[in-house]
Amino acid sequence: MPRVTIAQNILAPNETIAAEIRQTLAARQMRALNIMSSPGAGKTTLLERTIERLRDQLIIGVIEGDIETSADAERIEAAGAATVQINTRGTCHLEAHMIRDALAEIDLTRLDLLVIENIGNLVCPAAWQLGEDLRVVVMSITEGDDKPAKYPHMFAVAQVLILNKLDLLPHVDYDLARVKRQVLAINPHLRIFEMSCRTGTGLDAWCEWLIEFARGNGSDHGKGW
Amino acid sequence: MHELAIAQSIVEVVEQRASECRAARVKCVRLQVGEASGIVADSLQFSFTMLADLSPILAGARLTIASTPHRAHCRQCAREFAVQHFVPQCPTCATWSAEIVSGTELQILDMEIERSEEVVRVSRCPE
Predict the structure, then answer these.
(1) CA distance B13 to A225
(2) What is the pLDDT of residue A224?
(3) Complex ipTM
(4) Any idea which fold B3-70+102-119 has?
(5) Which of A98, B13, B58, B95 has its CA 20 to 30 A from that of A17?
């Protein structure tokens, strides 16, 4: 029986589109973030607070990924950013072709920074490149301090970790030092921001860093794809 | 859960190649999957079987998955080691200066096909 060589990366079709997106954005000197987390970790709230704080400094466009509803896109619009909603109708992650289609609906000439909010899921989005320059994982302390060890892939491919809901630290059994040890063991280059989007703690440091990132500064973001 | 999406990609790639090769049937598809690729082999098998059965050319095809270990090379010690639980720390010198050398693969290696009598004489598939 004939054996036919294929020798193809299964994700190659996705990665080809991601590379095209990266080129499109690079041609406009625009950078993009891919924000990932479990459901309920605070991605949308982080975006709302960030957009509000940076209103006079950065024009941010958002691609909002959800399985169903446009509730998050409405929140982001209300915070003041141009938003495109993607509903995946069941797919547990965003793929590059969805971003390509969404970009057709965004006027990139008006933007300083593109943010992609991925589907709430700490597993699958880690495998799909979307043409982003940087991957940000948001983890809330109410998820428990064992998550980096249990979901290492996500932390291995990210460059930034935001530890959110720190205002709840007195109320939960959460060993912050243990979490930092775990994530830095998996990915020693990970940049960590400790934050409470509810109280505002830590948002200034993040926003200052984000402005520099959007301006194209700080090229060393750890491991790339 | 994304194994279903991965299986869909495999089916699309294999169907395309099978058509280029004028295959009557695909009997077996071989994959190389790294242990750090985030893919669960059983789940991928299940998804593949489900999708393959919907495809006339792929129905009943076997999926063979070869796993590659997660390994890294320590620049300091100039040697390779097995990465445990995604932690790329050299067990000898304890540094984190290692480069991953295997374990992230997600590749379709090849496929076994049956051709109809007429096209069996085609010795090579178009590359």
Answers:
(1) 22
(2) 42
(3) 0.78
(4) hypothetical protein PF0899 fold (3.30.2320)
(5) B58
